[in-house]
Design brief:
By secondary structure, this protein is α+β, with helices and mostly antiparallel strands. It has 2 domains: about 25-210, Fructose-1,6-Bisphosphatase, Chain A, domain 1 (2-Layer Sandwich); about 220-335, D-Maltodextrin-Binding Protein, domain 2 (3-Layer(aba) Sandwich), CATH 3.40.190. The protein is about 30% helix and about 25% strand. The chain starts with 12 loop residues before the first helix and ends with a helix. The relative contact order is 0.13. The structure holds 2,5-anhydro-1,6-di-O-phosphono-D-glucitol and manganese (II) ion (2 copies). The site of 2,5-anhydro-1,6-di-O-phosphono-D-glucitol (AHG) has 12 residues, from strand 5.
């Protein structure tokens, strides 16, 4: 199909084609759009389906969380020093199993595993995943999520995995997405051709396209930051917060990155987790939290930076590397950067 150059604000042929697919089941949508992908051999499509399947299993467990013994702490810590919740560990198992069985992913980087997991297969893809984001909200029935980034492995499939396969910059992602277990469950993803959102219909056990070609509003009136940490913020961050207040912006902070990001993408806003005097490089993890959301935000006309450079250009030195994170509506992130 010929692509329109879309110099005006009129929807492109491509976006109206996607809009016409509202209500399509995820599987069909993935299949119909498979040819957009540079390596259209079907493996990435299968990988996305594996993620969707695992997310349905996790969704079922999240929904039952208050009824069965899967809430509360495990009594263990991950490498980042976070106290693992039972659901963190369970979600990690569900995604790892689905991806291992699927066979498209050769290596998995997870918040819950100290080192990368070699799945010992000929898969062409590497995945970085935060299986359960927003752990502190599990026990109180507030939205939580899953975040994932997908890369092509650089070395020959079937050979030992090398650090160049693992430590890839965000700009090398071939797909990324998140699942939001909220008042409804949604899967939002990009393969670098815009962002599409699917809503889960539990009685049918299927995701359906509900938010085609998502775009972030250019500006917005929501700022999301944990202001309780103000004493550890730098002056420019404090000044920007003051600016938001002077503009009568609305403060909204759920404490689940996926949920805060999703709301700001739909309504227009900025999410900030700055570096603090306590943790010089911020709290959020580059590989399995920020890169995916940075890719999605750029695909949706938004912006993501660490305060100095584009998140997607940040060199990866460590699997669990942390970063400051400013993401959301382009004009708001630009304004924050002017401070
Ligand atoms: P996780 O549950 O995967 O460890 O991530 C928690 C993250 C993120 O979801 C959230 O935005 C942020 O931590 C909240 O941190 P504060 O409680 O420090 O505000
Ligand atoms: Mn997280
Ligand atoms: Mn997590």
């Amino acid at each position: 199909m010929q692509r329109s150059t879309n110099k005006t604000n009129a929807p492109s042929i491509e976006s109206s084609r996607i809009a016409q697919s509202i209500g399509s089941a995820l599987d069909r949508f993935i299949k119909n759009n498979q040819n957009q992908f540079q390596y259209a051999s079907g493996e990435l499509s299968q990988l996305l389906r594996d993620i969707a399947l695992a997310s349905k299993v996790v969704n079922r467990e999240v929904n039952k969380a208050g009824l069965i013994d899967i809430m509360g702490p495990m009594g263990t810590q991950n490498l980042g020093g976070d106290h693992q919740q039972k659901l963190d560990v369970l979600a990690n198992i569900r995604f790892t199993r689905a991806l291992a069985k699927g066979g498209e992913v050769c290596a998995l980087i997870s918040e819950e595993s100290d080192s990368f997991v070699d799945l010992n297969n000929e898969g062409k893809y590497v995945i970085a995943i935060d299986p359960l984001d927003g752990s502190s909200n599990i026990d109180v029935n507030v939205s939580i999520g899953t975040i994932f980034s997908i890369y092509r492995r650089k070395t020959q499939p079937g050979t030992p995995i090398q650090s160049i396969d693992i430590l890839q910059k965000g700009s090398e992602q071939v797909a990324a997405g998140y699942v939001l277990y909220g008042s409804s469950t949604m899967l939002v993803y990009t393969t670098g051709h815009g962002v599409n959102g699917f809503t889960y219909e539990p009685s049918l056990g299927e995701y359906f396209l509900s938010h085609p070609d998502l775009k972030m509003p250019e500006g917005g009136k929501i700022y999301s930051i944990n202001e309780g940490l103000s004493n550890a913020f730098s002056k420019p961050v404090l000044d920007y917060i003051q600016y938001c207040k002077s503009q009568n912006y609305t403060a909204r902070y759920i404490g689940s990155l996926v949920a805060d990001f999703h709301r700001n993408m739909l309504k227009g806003g900025i999410y900030i987790y700055p570096a603090t005097s306590k943790d010089g490089s911020g709290k959020l993890r580059l590989m399995y939290e920020c890169n995916a959301l940075a890719f999605i935000s750029e695909q949706a006309d938004g912006m993501a930076t660490d305060g100095k450079q584009r998140i997607l250009d940040v060199e990866i030195k460590d699997l669990h590397q942390r970063t400051a994170f400013y993401v959301g509506s382009k004009k708001m992130v630009e304004k924050a950067m002017s401070y």
